[in-house]
From TrEMBL:
Membrane topology category: Multi-pass membrane protein
Organism: Bordetella genomosp. 1
Keyword vocabulary terms for this entry: Cell membrane, Membrane, Transmembrane, Transmembrane helix, Transport
One term under GO cellular component: plasma membrane
Keyword Chloroplast: no
Keyword Transmembrane included in the entry's annotation: yes
Primary location group: membrane
Name of the protein this chain belongs to: ABC transporter permease
Length: 281
């Protein structure tokens, strides 16, 4: 028997299974390197401007000079400054986030608790973090307690607000289904409220961690002899912009590192979500 006409040639490549790749495929930078493009361009531009004399080095030192300062500090107190600031951040963050989890869950589940607590918390949220510093110094002195308390205050409100919002945005039908199956309060929270509120909670935790790094700088600028914030003060008092830039770079790196850890935990915890991740490319 004769073969019928071949209709596959008239079909698009995507339907007929043929591969329509160009002969010379354009090379693309790996995704993990793309985030380095902007910093490298900025550093290269600054290096060129300072080396050419267009920007005075006593105002903006060249990135190579800042790198030399980092190497000098690495043989001295650099790791001690990083360690003490990290300890303060994680201590305050843990205390503030834990309190926010307890109170936020209570307020999110109870309208009565919301009526008593929400107005006061909204008013306190409007108080800048620096406004607490004089009072904390009077109450707790210049030791670690005042610094950690300031960080805990800064970390509390982002977690609290996002957690309450997450609980209140749980689909009412899911709660009704849980009640229909006679879930206990514990099972209802564990199997309905927690999975639904997790995305909001992680958003709050990431915001709280960023706020913790802001608060530790504020605390160390005013009363500290060690820490990244102290490096900022030392650089200002000795008129060393390279030292100030080292502290700023350390804050940026530590903030990004700790945020990446939370993002990894978020991705692992929320693998069940089928959410939009943006266009590839």
């Amino acid at each position: 028997m004769g073969r019928g006409p071949d209709h596959s040639a008239a079909l698009p490549d995507t339907l007929s299974g043929a591969s329509a790749r160009p002969a010379g495929r354009a090379w693309r930078l790996p995704g993990w390197l793309r985030g380095l493009v902007l910093p490298v361009l900025v550093f290269a531009g600054l290096e060129a401007l300072v080396r050419s004399g267009r920007v005075p080095d006593y105002l903006m030192p060249a990135p190579s000079q800042v790198f030399e300062t980092i190497l000098d500090l690495a043989h001295g107190p650099l790791w001690q400054h990083i360690g003490i600031s990290t300890f303060r951040v994680f201590s305050g963050f843990a205390i503030g986030a834990a309190l926010a989890l307890l109170i936020g869950t209570w307020v999110g589940l109870s309208r009565r608790a919301e009526a008593y607590l929400e107005p006061s918390f909204q008013a306190l949220r409007a108080v800048p973090g620096l406004a607490w510093v004089p009072l904390l110094l009077i109450w707790l002195g210049i030791d670690e307690a005042s610094k950690i308390t300031l960080i805990a205050i800064g970390a509390f409100f982002p977690v609290y607000l996002n957690l309450v919002a997450g609980i209140r945005n749980v689909d009412r039908k899911l709660v009704e289904v849980g009640a229909l199956y006679r879930f206990s309060s514990y099972r209802l929270v564990r199997h309905v409220f927690v999975p639904a509120a997790l995305p909001y909670l992680y958003t709050g935790l990431r915001q709280a961690l960023s706020m913790s790094w802001l608060c530790v700088v504020a605390a160390e600028l005013l009363a500290a002899t060690k820490g990244i914030g102290y490096l900022l003060t030392d650089g200002r008092e000795t008129s060393r912009p390279d030292l100030v830039l080292v502290a700023i770079i350390l804050l940026a790196v530590m903030g990004k590192l700790t945020d990446s850890i939370l993002r990894y935990a978020e991705a692992r915890s929320l693998r069940w979500r089928d959410s939009y991740a943006g266009k590839p490319g």
